[in-house]
Amino acid sequence: MAWIDGPRRAVGDCETARTLAVALVLALAGAGCAPVAMLPYRDTQPPTVSLPLALAGIADARAGFARLFAAELRASRSTHGDTDTALWLHGGFAAQDASIDRDTDIAFAARAASTTVLIVPGMFGDCVDTQSVPFGDGLPRPRERNLVDSYRQYDDLGLRSIEAIALPSRVSSADNGRRLAARIRAEAARAGVEHIVLIGYSKGLVDTLHALAELERDGGVPAQVAAVVSLAGAVMGTPVADHYERLYQTLSPLVNPLDCTPSDGHDLASLTRRERVAWLAANPPPAGVRYYSIVSHAPRDQIAPGLRLFYDLLAGADPRNDGQLIAGDAVLPGSTLLAEARADHWDLALPINLHPSLLVRSLTSGRAFPRDALFRATIRWVIGGLP
Hints:
The protein has 387 residues and is α/β, with parallel strands linked by helices. Helices cover 33% and strands 11% of the residues.
């Protein structure tokens, strides 16, 4: 069943609306009572620690990125009426301090035409990609068109191409890693591609890390792969996945909502802390690639109703969560932290708030997070900072 099927489906189609409500609200099979413990104890789990950014080897670029973000906000004033960065970013950065570093801007302009941006969607991504792809414009289109045409709003950046990668969203990250590795090899072999920037959203970041490991084992990561951005990426997994994994495995074969890929039974397992921590300990991100992280968290009243159950569960461990992930678990090792977005997991990346269905919009926070300004600032920062 299509989430959006153009004029053939009425916006108020009750069956579609009910299915979507179930799919989004129970996206991680979250029905049931609050757990006593989100994570079972395991002796075999690699030890982890929590440290301040500087002591953890994470570079803090939030202040400089906030200036660039503020400049992009002001440039898109007609789209976003309020340009106060404090509404959209944590950290208390002054809205009036808006500027684009000239050297970064010159470097970006010199490299843009030879740079491809590949965006890797998250779990359930192909359920909604006829309208919602990360950083897309939110207009409904056939899937094949939307994966590219949703980014026409950024044509003025002069990039070689921007594309959301079509991957089955309900399969293991190991399988998707192999698919994505082949896609990266093909992109690197295209004439004129000198730089590839990978943006992994949620589970898409996990798929991306698996792809890099696959490439490293099979001849090495192509030199064109210049940077990876974790956009609320499930780097360390989420306790929600551990807790509800068994329930999800029971229910997922019985439910195949919208246009979702059928579950292979290992999709949610790829997001558990059990798998992510152990895998990351054995597979550190390859050297020679620049890594960046953008995390999200918001107070409860700014979390989408469809995510509040998960927010409440995670808040028992850390209130700095976005309704799916604890913010600290979305930071890549050895990366540069660009921003702590004041957004929930959906607002940060997906234009669900622009969906034509009132019911769908009612599941969101109702905040029009400036995703386009965030994307522009991210791309300018990353490409402008390449060696």
